[in-house]
Design brief:
Number of helices: 3
Length: 110
């Protein structure tokens, strides 16, 4: 637990004051932290495999699985955000054409 706390403190130290132009760096740091959190959660879950109190074991497994799922979802969102930030107008493929004169699929974007 202490190691996880140190990791997040290090990430916050690296970020410093928020700067929109450094958003890509922040996402990178967040991805590292979330990946580490998943590793810690899985390690903690592994430790509960040897506990003889099955009720406590099952409760902790349930909590840790939920936590790992949420962390994994956060990582997936960050990964998708990073791809979006790397996108340029030349790499986007339009799948809808909006033209007021009716030459496209739609006349408005509402």
């Amino acid at each position: 637990m202490e190691s996880a706390i140190n990791d997040i403190e290090n990430s916050f130290d690296k970020m410093g004051l928020f700067n929109l132009y450094k958003l890509g760096e922040y996402v990178h740091e967040l991805r590292i932290w979330l990946s580490g959190a998943i590793t810690f959660e899985e390690s903690c879950l592994d430790e509960f495999e040897n506990i003889t109190n099955s009720e406590a074991e099952e409760k902790m497994k349930k909590i840790l699985r939920a936590s790992t799922e949420i962390t994994s979802n956060g990582l997936a969102i960050c990964s998708g955000r990073r791809k979006l930030l790397a996108t340029t107008p030349t790499t986007i493929e339009a799948d809808a054409v909006v033209a007021k004169d009716g030459s496209g699929q739609f006349k408005t974007n509402h």
